[in-house]
Write a structure and sequence with these properties.
Layout (H helix, E strand, L loop, with lengths): L14 H9 L4 E4 L8 E6 L5 H10 L5 E4 L1 H6 L21 E3 L9 H12 L8 E11 L11 H11 L6 E5 L10 H10 L4 E3 H11 L3 E11 L2 E10 L5 E7 L8 E7 L2 H5 L7 H15 L2 E6 L3 H4 L2 H12 L4 H7 L10 H9 L4 E5 L3 H8 L4 E6 L10 H11 L20 E3 L7 E2 L5 E3 L2 E3 L5 E3 L10 H14 L1
Parallel strand pairs: 1-7, 3-5, 11-12, 11-13, 13-14
Antiparallel strand pairs: 1-2, 2-6, 4-5, 8-9, 9-10, 10-12, 15-16, 15-19, 17-18
Length: 481
């Protein structure tokens, strides 16, 4: 078996280097991201398939060789999906399997499969040139490639396209000698032992976002607001088909040192005025500051709800927070990333507006790095006022302490005293840990609990009073005194 290497020895090649190897007919090792727990595929361009390449692939992989292809080519060859309802865990879009009709024996040898793969990549191939079923498994790649689905299927087609070749590749999962899936340390050593380049799909996604234009301006109008009149530019993502809006104040013609707020969509905070977050107050502050400046941009990014996980997942994460998790651990407990936002589309919109350098309105250093990675220069980070409430204090504290946000003036959470076990309330499916004896919200001096919830017995862990509940209780008592 390939020996494990320390994580620090992992070396990813550049996408340009990998594309050159693909163009030359060499395979590359592709992992689905930089996490050492993920799997890797051996990938090469389908039109470059040779018996030697197939023999190498079959020896070091699972042997189930697949050929990711563009949908138009699959339709031309009348290769339908293998099943009408795909329930495969990753949604891999298998078609019926194929062999070359002529020039092969059983279809399973390296030479036979190489011929079949080259036929699939050849635009002159017709349905008469193949037989079904067979020993090679075509896959339908998503339109938009890794920007729509960051999988090995799409990576193979994208790499072939970038290399100037037909949009088809050959892929197979690399395995260890005992048949287990090779992980990143093992993949690193495999690549080194065989003189192959190792890349990640995450890097391929970033490369395409930097080098291709994926937004189009579709509207230009004016919007009078409580902070004065703004010019509203509507944009649509070409790949994701998500709509965004840029509110522009004043003349930004020279594109230099423009005051800019890139604001992530938050239905609960921006529209409903939720006090669980500070999104709505940040949006108001940004509009006010840009209006006072007389010049600037508020870019409202759709698809960023809940730090990119979506509205329903955000509400489920709120349930986890009610049970005692912080905003980071709640996402992780649900199998979601702490922050899934990508700023590539936003950066392209800002460039389209003519912005070159900007003063970025944010308390989040990661946002600055995300935008600068796409060629924009942030000459200054301008902090937004911190608006804390009893309901969002723990959330803001977590953003400061665990996500690196700059939140000056944020008070420390009070110490949590030892308390006896009490009953908890359960609102919805299996959400425990919400204190029944501490008011959850204060509205007009009245304590509001969870109407309709039924009591359940709390465990010792569930009975702990959260920090913000203590502060909230103190504030509520002050309001009702």
């Amino acid at each position: 078996m390939i020996k494990n290497l320390p994580v620090g020895d992992t070396r990813f090649a550049s996408i340009d280097e990998a594309v050159a190897q693909i163009a030359a007919g060499r395979p590359v090792v592709v992992v689905d991201d930089a996490d050492r727990e993920n799997e890797g595929d051996l990938i090469f361009a389908a039109e470059k398939a040779t018996p030697e390449l197939l023999a190498f692939m079959i020896r070091y992989t699972s042997g189930v060789v697949c050929v990711p292809m563009d949908g138009a080519d699959l339709d031309r060859l009348e290769l339908d999906q293998m099943v009408p309802h795909n329930t495969e865990r990753m949604g891999t879009a298998f078609t019926v399997s194929v062999d070359a009709r002529a020039g092969v024996t059983t279809g399973i040898s390296a030479a036979d499969r190489a011929l079949t793969i080259r036929l699939l990549a050849d635009p002159a191939t017709t349905i008469a040139d193949i037989t079904k079923p067979g020993h090679v498994f075509p896959l339908r790649a998503k339109v938009g490639g890794v920007l729509r689905r960051p999988g090995h299927t799409e990576a193979a087609v994208d790499l072939a396209r970038l290399a100037g070749l037909r949009p088809a590749g050959a892929i197979c999962e690399i395995v260890n000698d005992d048949g287990s899936m090779a992980r990143l340390p093992e993949l690193t050593q495999f690549a080194e032992e065989h003189g192959l380049l190792l890349i990640s799909i995450a890097d391929l996604v970033a490369y395409r976002r930097r080098s291709e234009h994926h937004v189009e301006q579709v509207a230009d109008t004016r919007i009078p607001t409580g902070y004065g009149e703004f010019r509203a530019f509507g944009y649509r993502g070409v790949i994701e088909d998500v709509e965004h809006v840029a509110l522009v104040k004043g003349d930004i013609g020279d594109g230099c040192d423009v005051l800019v707020r890139v604001h992530s969509e938050c239905l609960t905070g921006d529209v409903f005025g939720s006090r669980r977050c500070d999104c709505g107050t940040q949006l108001d502050a940004a509009l006010r500051m840009i209006a006072q400046e007389g010049r600037g941009v508020v870019l409202y990014m759709r698809g960023h709800e809940g730090r990119g996980v979506g509205l329903i997942h955000k509400l489920r994460a709120y349930q986890m927070q009610d049970a005692g998790h912080d905003t980071v651990d709640a996402n992780l407990a649900l199998g979601l990333p702490a922050d899934a936002r990508d700023y590539g589309t936003g950066a392209q919109i800002l460039v389209d507006l003519g912005i070159r350098t900007m003063r970025l309105l944010t308390n989040n250093p990661t946002k600055r790095a995300g935008l600068e990675g796409y060629g924009l220069e942030v000459v200054e980070r301008v902090g937004l006022p911190v608006n804390f409430t009893p309901e969002n204090l723990r959330y803001l504290t977590t953003k400061r302490d665990r996500m690196g946000h700059d939140l000056p003036g944020l008070p420390k959470l009070p110490a949590v005293p030892a308390v006896p076990a009490v009953q908890a309330v359960q609102a919805g499916p299996k959400v425990a840990g919400v204190r029944a004896d501490v008011p959850l919200h204060c509205v007009g001096g009245t304590s509001v609990g969870s109407a309709g919830a039924h009591p359940v017995r709390a465990t010792e862990a569930e009975s702990a009073v959260t920090d913000e509940e203590l502060l909230m209780a103190d504030m509520c008592q002050g309001e009702t005194a």
